Amino acid sequence: MILGIDTATRTCSLGLFEGSTGIIGEISLKMDRGHGRFMNQVLQDLMNMVNRNPEDIKGVAVGLGPGSYTGTRVGIAAARALTLALEIPAWGVSTLEALARGLPRSDMPILTALDARRQRVYWGLYRNKGDSTEKLIAAGLNGIEEVVKEILKAYPQVILLGELPASYVQIFENLLGEKLEVGPEPFHQVRGAIVACMGWHAHKTSPGGDNITRLVPTYLGKPANLG
Predict the structure, then answer these.
(1) Can you give the pTM of this predicted structure?
(2) Domain covering 103-187, topology
């Protein structure tokens, strides 16, 4: 059973995934701040809900952002603590890729974006293919107009997902018109269960996990180490 954690955005989400069962359980809370105050309680509530013990967790997958400085660090700190306490592996995943992975299969490219302020976004372009997500354009930090120009070089239509101000979505709509489809509302928040699923697939190719002490988060506003 893999635990997924993502606290990089305003959504604090924990989920459990098991290969033979699929998604076992998930708790997601929308909050502007205070992820750390609730982390232990949310994890305890989740384990109680599914009648499992922490010792049943065989690995942890954690979202590395991009996200807020404090929020992203909360998730990584929790993953490190569990890794050390339970002696289990951990894997770092891109929050942008996790957003794309949560959308049901679509032939259209998926543009995931998060607010980096001043009409800039952290973004990446993905396509879901079976049990994997293909990265079409590597994640970057750009102004919205730059993002649109980059996308239109190769892709005639995209689906937009992400926690964005309504004004940003409107700019995308104005620039792309019918070439843009805004994804359904429930899919704009990252899900801990999807992060856990990504961890389960990572376990198959890298059972030992990543070096938890070297996982590098990406903070909103700093154009480095994107996933």
Answers:
(1) 0.91
(2) Nucleotidyltransferase; domain 5 (3.30.420)
